[in-house]
Amino acid sequence: MSTARLNAYTASPKAMKAMIALNDFVENCGLEHSLLELVKMRASQINGCAYCLHMHSTDARKQGESEMRLYLLDAWRESSLYSERERAALAWTEALTRLSETRAPDADYAEMARHFSEEEQVNLTVAINMINSWNRIAVGFRSQHPKH
């Protein structure tokens, strides 16, 4: 277990206000909230962000997401529980979250583009960037999730 390093909200309120503004855009960009929660969960799994995993699994459950889909998210490629649109978003999430390894493959982009309009492609990409930014803040500063 790690110890919190600092509170980003008190250390730099202006920076966190900007993060929250972009986050508000993502939450209201028109993409399905269920899809956004899966994207947030998957990126947070890859980045090892316990704080974000706690938050987004709680939020997903409140929005009606099934326990089974949350449990199997790490193995989504082998599961039939996710729609083609969700699978395309999850592949794109992995490609961008692991950018230094994947270089955002053409095949992942093409599959994502089949299921999302151009505007949705940008919004999804911003959403992926947003959760990766939150992960880096939470992991970097060792944000602590609630104990329940």
The backbone outline, from C-alpha atoms, is: globular
| Computed CA radius of gyration, to the nearest angstrom | 15 Å
Main sheet attributes: strand count, strand direction, barrel closure: none
Structural class: mainly alpha
Beta-strand portion reads under 5%
Low-confidence stretches: none
Provide the succession of SSEs: HHHHHHHHH
Q: Which oligomerization state do the chains in this entry correspond to?
A: single chain
Q: How many angstroms does the end-to-end distance come to?
A: 15 Å
Roughly what percent helix? 55-70%
Features:
148 residues; 9 helices
Describe the structure.
With 148 residues, the protein is mainly α. Helix content is 70%, strand content 0%. It is built from nine helices and no strands. It has helices spanning 8-11, 13-27, 33-47, 50-62, 67-71, 84-97, 99-102, 106-115, 118-140. The longest helix is centred in the C-terminal third of the chain and has 23 residues, at 118-140. The mean pLDDT is 96.
